[in-house]
Amino acid sequence: MPILQIKDVTKVYEGKVTHRALNQLSFDVEEGEFLAVMGPSGSGKTTLLNIISTIDEPTSGEIILDGMNPHTLKATELAYFRRRQLGFIFQDFNLLHMLTVEENIVLPLTLDQQPLEVMEERLASIVEKLDLTSFLHKRPNEISGGQAQRTAIGRALIHSPSLILADEPTGNLDSNSSRDVLELLTKINQEKRTTIVMVTHDPIAASYCDRVLFIKDGEFFNEIHKDDRRQMFFQRILNVLSLLGGGQVGDLSTIRLP
């Protein structure tokens, strides 16, 4: 059974001009899948993430996550659900600057009032996996962008969520740091079978995933699955992006994978 089901989700924003951000969008995400969501600016990608993460409500349709619809929960249950089941990775890291790297990572466990020994045990395993030891006691403004994003990944993983939602996680990183972060997410996905849904505009980032879902004007446009050769998958992603248009692609025909 899929870990996440998006069923006929529509999101309409009322205003002077009514804007339909999502229109009867349906798809499933299997447990352990690494899914990229792509589409032109304004296609509804961020709205979709916000609805999955329960920050926003669908106008109609429903989301089933781990067999339940989180949008039916009361506020306190919802906060608990979000803290327990979901991990978040953002483009701008969203780290708290007054806390050290270590304190930022254990924050979800602190909020959950977990015992100290649980925190220490989880932290030790995350630090080793993500190679964070050398800057654990520094603050976010004392580390590089790549290190900050690794810290954010540590925070997203510390409570073993069912689903990680990543919004342009490599958007503020140089190509080397981007590759490190994507390889890290791939490793987490493969070793821990952690399900990841990643919004990205970057075809190189998308080529690390198992499947790429394309949306346009809030509707399903296309999807492609990974094959054995990443270069071929990358090329197929570029082909769909050129069909999608939206001015985000430019001339990608000459790009080779790093």
From TrEMBL:
In what residue span(s) does the ABC transporter domain sit?
A: 4-242
Supply the Pfam families for this chain. Answer: ABC_tran (PF00005)
Gene Ontology molecular function: ATP binding; ATP hydrolysis activity; transmembrane transporter activity
Q: Say if the entry is tagged with keyword Hydrolase.
A: no
- What's in the GO CC field? membrane protein complex
What UniProt keywords are attached to this protein's entry? ATP-binding, Nucleotide-binding, Transport
This protein's name: Bacitracin ABC transporter ATP-binding protein
Q: What is the lineage of its organism?
A: Bacteria, Bacillati, Bacillota, Bacilli, Bacillales
